[in-house]
């Protein structure tokens, strides 16, 4: 389900009715369905699901080695499974690098009550094509490619028709999703050595980009780039606020600067000020908990991208917008944000959500990154460090994205 809304209201996640059913939590929605958020009983689909999984795995696709979380401790450990037998339009990809998004952390810890264990996380994937089905037209063995947050959509609804496949009700997430077109099997993500995906959800990585620094762009990059394009937050001279200087936020700063904007970071971490200005090119840096600093910036921003992963007050952020300014919420705290009418009505301000970006946006974002030499700031790790990395991510101790050297950790999948 889409996470696109004009106005956030103070109720638990307000996803469309039925989101918890066939294409519900973990399947269509990256976030919890309302019923999961309210912790109502789970649908009795687990036996059926186990059978579907068994059926899928008996199909004898390529053996894969990944790391999976088995329960809400979130602890990851080695996990063997099979990829599906490739179809005509499928591309087989040897995974080289996979970023660790905070969404992976939310999911393995079951923050959103939608985890379908075992969960193999990972949706910021860069790899090399090792095989293509007979109907594949856009890729060949040896191509360097990326796979992001989703690997399927219905391809017949209004959203898909408009190229907004990221808002398709039948979206199939790359990890912890339900693969409707392939027996309803749960999807396993990029913390694994091999992936099979339809070519329609695979993007080309432009030459010249460092592959480890590109992996986070497949989710973090497109999640900020897409709403910046949609809301006109890509125009030189405009003033952009970026709330939360993490994986998403630091890439938003880079895109904002590449668009020629004035960029102000709004952060809880004073220790990030120097890097934000000297290394990432931000123009200004506000501490969100410093009332004087926030007051001095009232009414100065054309747009704000809010990437914060935990609950936080948004009224002080909305005060930073000019009249008719636009806030875009991309962070996904499990606790609902509060939106008083007075924070948006007098200034005619907008609050929108954004769910990653379409495949088309993702390709355009990569081309833009290639042209402007944009990559994430990364700490490259081996897979056996992943549990420590998750702990550090939870403590806001990463500058600014962990990326797993998957091929260097799990050997080579042919
Ligand atoms: P991240 O690297 O952990 O960054 C989140 C940042 O939020 C932190 O660096 C921190 O920045 C700030 N923060 C953390 N706790 C906070 C608190 N209690 N109050 C205020 N600020 C706090 O996470 P990420 O990978 O960028 O993801 C951010 C969020 O976006 C997650 O909820 C994730 O699930 C979501 N997400 C959504 C989409 C989408 O399509 N909408 C896509 C990807 C991710 P400072 O230190 O600067 O304060
Ligand atoms: Zn992500």
TrEMBL record:
CC cofactor: Zn(2+)
GO biological process: lignin biosynthetic process
Enzyme Commission number: 1.1.1.195
Alphabetized UniProt keyword annotations: Lignin biosynthesis, Metal-binding, NADP, Oxidoreductase, Zinc
GO molecular function: cinnamyl-alcohol dehydrogenase activity; zinc ion binding
Reaction equations catalysed: (E)-coniferol + NADP(+) = (E)-coniferaldehyde + NADPH + H(+); (E)-caffeyl alcohol + NADP(+) = (E)-caffeyl aldehyde + NADPH + H(+); (E)-cinnamyl alcohol + NADP(+) = (E)-cinnamaldehyde + NADPH + H(+); (E)-sinapyl alcohol + NADP(+) = (E)-sinapaldehyde + NADPH + H(+)
Gene: LOC100273263
Record has Zinc as a keyword: yes
Species this protein is from: Zea mays (Maize)
First-tier enzyme category under EC: oxidoreductase
Annotated protein name in UniProt: Probable cinnamyl alcohol dehydrogenase
């Amino acid at each position: 389900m889409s996470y696109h809304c004009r106005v956030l209201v103070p109720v638990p996640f307000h996803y469309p009715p039925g989101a918890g059913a066939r294409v519900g939590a973990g399947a269509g929605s990256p976030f919890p369905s309302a019923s999961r958020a309210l912790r109502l009983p789970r649908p009795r689909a687990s036996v059926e699901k186990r059978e579907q999984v068994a059926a899928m795995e008996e199909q004898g696709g390529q053996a894969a080695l990944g790391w999976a979380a088995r329960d809400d401790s979130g602890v990851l450990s080695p996990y063997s499974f099979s990829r599906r037998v490739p179809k005509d339009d499928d591309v087989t990809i040897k995974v080289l690098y996979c970023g660790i998004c905070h969404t992976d952390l939310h999911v393995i810890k079951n923050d959103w009550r939608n985890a379908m264990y075992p969960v193999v996380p990972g949706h910021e994937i860069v790899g090399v094509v090792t095989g293509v089905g007979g109907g594949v037209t856009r890729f060949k063995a040896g191509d360097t490619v990326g796979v992001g947050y989703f690997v399927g959509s219905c391809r017949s609804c209004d959203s898909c028709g408009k190229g907004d496949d990221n808002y398709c009700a039948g979206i199939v997430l790359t990890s912890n999703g339900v693969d409707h077109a392939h027996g309803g099997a749960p999807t396993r993500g990029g913390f694994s050595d091999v992936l099979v995906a339809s070519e329609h959800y695979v993007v080309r990585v432009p030459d010249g980009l460092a592959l480890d620094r590109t992996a986070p762009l497949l989710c973090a990059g497109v999640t900020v780039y897409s709403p910046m394009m949609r809301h006109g937050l890509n125009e030189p001279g405009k003033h952009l606020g970026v709330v939360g200087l993490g994986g998403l936020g630091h890439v938003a700063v880079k895109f904002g600067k590449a668009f020629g904007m004035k960029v102000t970071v709004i952060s809880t971490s004073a220790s990030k000020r120097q890097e934000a200005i000297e290394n990432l090119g931000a123009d200004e840096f506000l501490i969100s908990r410093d009332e004087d600093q926030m007051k001095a910036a009232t009414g100065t921003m054309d747009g704000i991208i809010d990437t914060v992963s935990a609950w936080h007050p948004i009224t002080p952020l909305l005060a930073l917008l000019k009249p008719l300014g636009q806030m875009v919420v991309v962070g996904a705290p499990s606790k609902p944000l509060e939106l008083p009418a007075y924070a948006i009505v007098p200034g005619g301000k907008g609050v929108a959500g954004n769910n990653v970006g379409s495949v088309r946006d993702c390709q355009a974002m990569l081309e833009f990154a290639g042209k402007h030499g944009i990559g994430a700031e990364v700490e490259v790790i081996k897979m056996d460090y992943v549990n420590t990395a998750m702990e550090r991510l939870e403590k806001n101790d990463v500058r600014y994205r962990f990326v797993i050297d998957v091929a260097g950790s799990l050997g080579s999948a042919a």
